[in-house]
Amino acid sequence: MDLKRVAPELRPWVPKYRMPIESSLLRLVANVILGLLPHRSLSGVRFERRDGAAHSVRLFTPQERRSRGALLWVHGGGLIIGHPAMDDQFCAETARELGIVVVSARYRLAPRHPYPAAIDDGHAAWEWLTRNAGSLGVDPGRIAVGGQSAGGGLAAALAQRVCDGQPPHPVAQWLFCPMLDDRTAAQLDLDAQEHFVWDNRLNRFGWRAYLGREPGGTTAPRYAVPARRDDLTGLPTAWIGVGDVDLFFAEDLAYARRLTAGGVPVTLDVVPGAPHGFEVWGRKTQTASAYRDRARDWLSTAISACP
User: Fold this and answer.
1) Model-level pTM?
2) Please, what sign has the CA dihedral across residues 257, 258, 261, 266?
3) How far apart are CA 119 and CA 135, in angstroms?
4) Is residue 112 within 8 Å of 43, Cβ to Cβ?
5) Does 87 qualify as catalytic in the annotation?
6) Catalytic: which of 149, 181, 195, 252?
7) Going residue by residue through the chain (307 aa), what tens digit of pLDDT does each one get?
C-alpha cells in the first residue's frame, strides 16, 4: 500500500514491516515475551490478577468510582498471538477515566487451540464477571463487551452468544477495528494491496488457524464468525471504529449497516487514512488520542444510559 494513503500525522509511526506470524517458533517467542511484559501501575487504579475464569482475568478498579458499570475487554492478535498484558495501560486508563471496573480476559490461541476455545474462554470470563458483580460493586445490567482487532471480533461474537442466553446481557459492544468476517480472507485480490500492519495473507492464516479449514466456505460454526449471523436484531448498541485504509474497513462498514438495518443503534467512527490498530502503535498522535476520547465518551454514555 502506498504510504501516501496514510494520514500525514500517522506516517512516521506506521510499522513498515510484515509480521512473520506463520512461523510457529516466532509466535511462541512473541507470546512468551508478551506474557512477560511487566505491569506498570497507573495512579488511581488498583490492578489485580484473579483466577476463576478459563484462563484467569486481569482486574482494573478505579479509586474513584463514577458508575457501577463495567467493561469486559478482549485483546487482539489475529486469534493466533497476543496476551492481555499488552493492553494493561489502555484498560487502566479506561477504568480511571470512566470510573468503571475493567476486566481483561485471557483466551487460548489458535492453531493449537482452534474454535471454539477462544469464544468459550471469553464466555467464561463473562460468567466470572457477572457471577462476581456484587462483590466488585458492578451492576450486571451495566456491563459492556469490547475488544480490538481479533478481540473486537470475539467481543462481537460474545455479544451474540450471551444475548442468545438468559440475562444479564451486555449493555453495549465497543469494537475497535474488529475482525468480523472470514470471507474477507478468501478475497485473494486483496493480497496485492498489502495493507499496513495486518494484510490479507496474515488474515487468511489467522482465520485458517482458528477455523481449522480454509476461510470463506459456504458455512461457518455458530459464533465463530460474527458477520455470518443472519439475524442481528436484539443485539446491544454498538460503537465500531476503524480506519478507511484498514483491511477490515469494508467488513466493519457492512456489519454496522446490517446492525442498523436490524434496529440496533450504531455509532460508526471512520478515521481517514488510519491503518489497522493505529490507536496502539500511533497512540501518541493527536489522531489516536482524539479517537480514544470519542470512543470512551460513547462508552460512558452507553453505560450511563442503561436503565
Assistant:
1) 0.96
2) negative
3) 25
4) no
5) no
6) 149
7) 999 999 999 999 998 766 677 777 788 887 778 777 778 889 999 999 987 666 789 999 999 999 999 999 999 999 999 999 999 999 999 999 999 999 999 999 999 999 999 999 999 999 999 999 999 999 999 999 999 999 999 999 999 999 999 999 999 999 999 999 999 999 999 999 999 999 999 999 999 999 999 999 999 999 999 999 999 999 999 999 999 999 999 999 999 999 999 999 999 999 999 999 999 999 999 999 999 999 999 999 999 876 6
219-237 burial by CB neighbour count: b if 16+ within 10 A, else e? ebeebbbbbbbeebeebbb
Nearest-5° angle of CA 180, CA 182, CA 186?
A: 140
Catalytic residue among 121, 246, 252, 300: 246
Instruction: Catalytic residue, from 75, 169, 195, 276: name it.
Output: 276
Q: Are 137 and 235 in contact (CB under 8 A)?
A: no
Per the annotation, the verdict on 23 as an active-site residue is no
Residue 149 among the catalytic residues? yes
